[in-house]
Amino acid sequence: MCIISLILYTHLSLLVLIIFGPLDCRSPPRYIFTMKTILIGCGTRPDVLKLAPVWAELRLNPRFTTKIWWSGQGKDIFPVEHQYMVDNSSKIAWSSLNEGIADTIKGFDDAIYLYEPDLVVTHGDDATAYACTLAAFNRSIPVAHVEAGLRTYRDTPHPEEAYRRSIALMASMHFAPDTIARLNLIQEYIPHDRIFITGNTINDVMRAWAPAFNGNLDILVTLHRRENTGRHIASALNTLGLWAIKHNITVIKHPNWQDQYDLSKLINFIDPVPHDELLNLMSLNDFVVTDSGGLQEECAFLGCPCIVYREETERTALLNSGAIILAPPSDPDSLDDALRILLRRQYAYGNGTAGLQIARLIEKRLGTCANVAGVEAIGGDSADLPG
Fold it and tell me: What are the b/e assignments for 302-318, b being 16+ CB within 10 Å?
């Protein structure tokens, strides 16, 4: 009987080895994942708007149970409970800041007791964010702070400036919207490996509001001055051809073009148009590139960013105000540099993927995945710009 049992045990062991491979007692098997609970604390309209992209990404992850707790600080956002499936709403009166903060700490502490979160997510610098962060910090629960690092280093805005600086001392993950916010946190001695540049989640909201927007820009170009005819226009068209790989470039051909330029098939070349149609085109495009004097003035009136492809401009008032950027043709890189400057102005807070980046970084922090491709700690803008 003992021999038969030994044979059966040996065969069973071999079967397990074939199916699952050798067992490593030093670490759990790769196919075992632990569910994690994330608790989001919000209270005002900006909280709800800017945390919505993060919530949307987190709830898609089957390894997360994501709960939303609302403090009721923003009295005008009741429909939010239905739109974003708030799991727990408080009945806090918010008759004063002190009472509201005290009741929020108690209410959020009850939510922590109920859900037992592995991570708390807060946003911004309002009283709810401060109170929720403090409640989690006192329970030794890590806090991920969205829109971290914004500073005035003054007494105003009061009391938000004090709240956000206090939150930075308690948070474990800091999602900064830009490089300046990151530097603010660094000079406050926040460890580098806890800071991540993700852009601002409001850009995610704007992309959802305008679904047709895909990050491609519309750029209108008109070049005609005699001093640019020839190699300078050829250089500009070469640069624009590279930008046309990703963006929509429309170039208005001019009768002065007596040279046969190498016209990129990616660029949309059109014949000259009447003035009223030209103004309409300018208003529909994101940027204008021109060497015209009059178009500089018209762009300024329309509020359309303008790159002036000339060595100098006599419209110094526009140059000094920042309405136009000068791109000297003698520098073959000047046009590309100017376009990148305008692009960074357009996407100062990222390209609308902050929610996804934050969700991936949280996943990496909580150890539910081995590696997160494309998302790294600081050392550069993780919110890459298009172009």
Answer: eebbbbbbbbeeebeeb
| pLDDT at residue 2 tops 80 | no
Give how many domains the chain has, as a whole number. Answer: 2
Which residues are within 8 A (CB) of 76 and not within 5 positions of it... i.e. 6 or more apart? 45
Q: Are residues 96 and 204 in the same domain?
A: yes
Q: Which long-range contacts (CB under 8 A, 24 or more apart) does 343-347 make?
A: 343/217, 343/385, 343/386, 343/387, 344/385, 345/305, 346/217, 346/286, 347/199, 347/203, 347/383, 347/385, 347/386
Three-state DSSP state, 21: coil
Verify cis geometry, omega within 30 degrees of 0, for the bond prior to 157: yes
Half-sphere exposure of 331 (CA within 13 A, CB side): 13
Answer yes or no: is pLDDT of 343 > 70.
yes
Could you give the CA distance from residue 161 to residue 114 in angstroms, rounded to a whole number?
A: 31
Could you tell me if 140 and 172 are in contact, meaning their C-beta atoms sit under 8 angstroms apart? no
What pLDDT does residue 120 have? Answer: 97
Q: Which range marks the domain in which residue 199 is found? A: 36-209+351-366
> Residue 16 domain-assigned?
no
Q: Give the distance, in angstroms, between the CA of residue 229 and the centroid of all CA atoms in the same chain.
A: 41
DSSP count for the chain of H helices, then E strands: 14, 13
Task: Give the rounded distance of the alpha carbon of 43 from its chain centre.
Answer: 21
